[in-house]
Every structure is written in C-alpha cells, then in structure tokens.
Amino acid sequence: MRILLIYDCLYPNTVGGAELWLRALAEDLGRENDVVYVTRRQWDEPPEVEGFEVVGVSGGELYTRSGRRRLLPALAFGLGVFGHLVRRRGHYDVVHCLSYPYFAVPAVRLALAGTRSRVFVEWLECLSPAWWRAYGGRVGGLLGRALQGLCVRLTPAAFVFSDHSAERVRSAGLRGKLHKLPGLYAGPGAAPADGERDEELVLFAGRHMPDKRPVAAVEALALARERRPGLHGVIVGDGPERARVLARIGELGVDDAVRAPGFVERAELEDLLGRAACVVAPSLREGFGMAVVEASAAGTPVVVCEGPDNAAAELVEPGVNGELAADASPQAIAAAVLRVLDAGPALRESAATWFERNRERLSMEQSIAAVERIYRDSSRTAATNAS
Asked: Do 89 and 111 contact (CB within 8 A), yes or no?
C-alpha cells in the first residue's frame, strides 16, 4: 500500500507521545509498504530515517513563549498539506492524519475529494467547550471549538485511544467509523525486582507546558512536605513553563528538596521511575495517559487529576495503581500524594500487578497491528465496492 502519515511534528526533532507513536508507526509500516510522512520542517538538515520518506511542507516555530500554539504555522502546514496532496492526487491508498493542527483535516478532504484514497483522522483529544473558553477567550474559544467541530464532521473514519475521546468525537458529530486503538506504551516490561526505592521521592516527568501543570506539581510537593518533611521531588522536562518552575521552587523555599534537571536521558528517567515512591501527573488534558502506564510499568503509583479533558483518569483505579486528586488544586494533589506515600509498598505491588494485567491491551505494538489490520480491511472493502 501507498500510505501517507500527516502531523506537523516528527520524533525526535519534537518530543512527545504523538510524535513517538507516529514515528514508530511509520517505521513499522515502511517494512512492507511505501510510506511518506508529511510534516513541518524542524531541522537544518533533513533527518535520517529508515523505511519511510519525510517531506517537510512548511516551517515556523510552533509555540509562543507562554506555550500557546501559534496560528500562522498551523495555517501554513494546512496549505502545505493541501499542495502536497494536489500534486500527488490519487497517489495514496491510505491517508492517516492527526486532527491537530486542525487546518490539515479540511485540506486533506478538499484535496482528495473524488479520489479513492481512504482517509483516517486520529483524535488523540477532542476538547471541551470549557477548555476552549479558557484557552482562547470568548471569541477565540468559539472559533477554535467551531473549527474542531468542522474537523469532526469531516472525519470519515476516526482513530482514538480512550473511551473519553470516543465519547467526545461522537457527541461532537462524528458520523463515520470509530476505531479505538489499544494504547501507546512501548517501554520496558517492569522495574527490576531488586530495584531500590526511595520512600520519599516524588517524580514529575513531562513537557513544561501550561496544560501539563509542572508548577502545580512543585506547589503540591511543598504542601505535602508540611506533613512529611523528608519528602523530596524531581521535576523532569523542559518547555515554556520551565522558568516559572525554577522561580516557584525558589519562592517556596524548597531548593534543597526539589530539583528540576530539565530533559534527561531515557535510562535516567527509567531509573527515576523505578526508584520513585510516587509519580505526580497533574495535567488538565490528556488523550491517553502515558504517565499512568509508564509509572505502573515501573511498579510506581501515580496521582492524576480528574477533569473534563483528561483521559488519563480512566486508567487510574484508586487504591490499585494510584490515586485521583479530588480537584486540580495543589492542595488536592498534595493530599493524593500523601495517600500514595502512606500506602507504601503494598500499593506499589498492586500497581505492578495492574500493569501486568493490562500491558497487552495498552501496548503500542497492539495499536500498530490494529492500524495495519484496519488499513487492509478498508482496502478490501474499497476493492469490493469498486467491483
């Protein structure tokens, strides 16, 4: 098959769960198919890849200093996608496009109108009206929500990774087929049996973006230390919020207890996951919940916040593999962290058991196999309809 994958980020030029997933999918599909990955130019020299072709159709920095997505690069990417597909109209058997940035979706549908290319749109997230209002204000939020709704209605077949996203796209007007994929975890099976634990170590690992809320993690750790003075934390990652993270550590006087080393190598992150007593993931929006799975794989309970845009909460069984904060406040997060620490080794053993019970259904390998199967089925259906 001739397959086109579309997303404006490419791993490892940009680091994130969606980037890692699409890179792995491209490499796997490229073993037996002709695969092209259309993206934004994020390099001085074209990246070296194996098994697929990378095509840069636009440029520009994605984020403002505050961590918001810029509008012009998203528009430019949509136009670049449209131009690429017009030039290669009818060439691709399958086109797999991430919903975000949204301008690519109408570009795909317009460029491919009247062709036999099968189009799949991947909805990692479908955001709530409340999120759009908070993000874009009254007017900007309304426009963003309207564009998201248009893209949902233009989706002939959707991929999702959570029940949360499935319900959202259905309620937003999806009329096409909906395929729920198993998961996105591609890491090691579990922490070493003889790994040493630090009973007072709490870990945050993620991009320092407003929605990931690393500052709230620092504030929660400072509050939890009022009851457990020996508690200390590591805030791993980088991004627009890093300056605020460092400033807040100083303002709260926890310089001796909380360190923020920036990005770390994968081996060091796995070591931290295996040694931590708790992972805190206070994100307001997640399409899957990788932090929950990675923590549980290391036998480490996780704290997440319930919320209208957070699919990670559906992966947490309180008292089994972690705790749910009552709300998104630092006080509620701190209380949940303390519950995890108080539960001790029994909860860690339970988290490891939860992972072993669920690892297959949450694996990226299973998702890749499912996507390949869906592609083949769609090809057979198209051939049957054509005859």
From this structure: yes
In a domain, residue 114? The reply is yes
Is 15 part of a structural domain of the chain? yes
| Residue-wise pLDDT tens digits, 31-47 | 999 999 999 998 888 78
In one letter, which amino acid is 22?
L
In a domain, 193, yes or no: no
Looking at the fold, whether 168 and 299 belong to one and the same domain comes out as no
Between the CA atoms of 305, 311, 314 and 317, what dihedral angle is there, to the nearest 10 degrees? -40
Could you read off the pLDDT of 318-355 as tens digits, one per residue? 999 999 999 999 999 999 999 999 999 999 999 999 99
Q: Do 22 and 120 fall within a single domain?
A: yes
Report whether 182 contacts 363 (CB < 8 A).
yes
> 61 and 180: one domain?
yes
Residues 43 and 140 in one domain: yes
377 HSE (CA, 13 A, CB side):
10
DSSP letter (8 states) at residue 83: H
State how far the Cα of 214 lies from the Cα of 384, in Å rounded to an integer.
52
User: Do residues 334 and 205 share a domain?
Assistant: yes
Beta-sheet pairing, 94-98 with 2-6: parallel
Give the closest residue to 123 by CA, choosing from 98, 101, 147.
98
Range of the domain at 50: 2-186+363-386
Q: Are residues 300 and 317 in the same domain?
A: yes
pLDDT digits (tens, 9 = 90+) for 220-263: 999 999 999 999 999 999 988 999 999 999 999 999 999 999 99
Q: What is the pLDDT of residue 134?
A: 87
Longest distance between any two alpha carbons in the chain, whole Å: 72
Asked whether residue 192 is assigned to any structural domain, the reply reads: no
CATH number at residue 104: 3.40.50.2000
CA distances from 322 to 17, 193, 347 (A): 21, 20, 7
pLDDT per position as a tens digit, 106-129:
999 999 999 999 999 999 999 999
The mean per-residue pLDDT over the stretch 198-219 comes to: 95
Tell me which amino acid residue 332 is. Answer: A
Number of domains in the chain: 2
Q: pTM for this one?
A: 0.88
Do 367 and 354 share a structural domain?
Answer: no
**What tokens appear for 191 in the block?**
């922490």
Helix, strand or coil for residue 14? coil
H-type alpha helices, 265-344: 266-275, 290-297, 330-343
- Decide if 280 contacts 290 (C-beta within 8 A): no
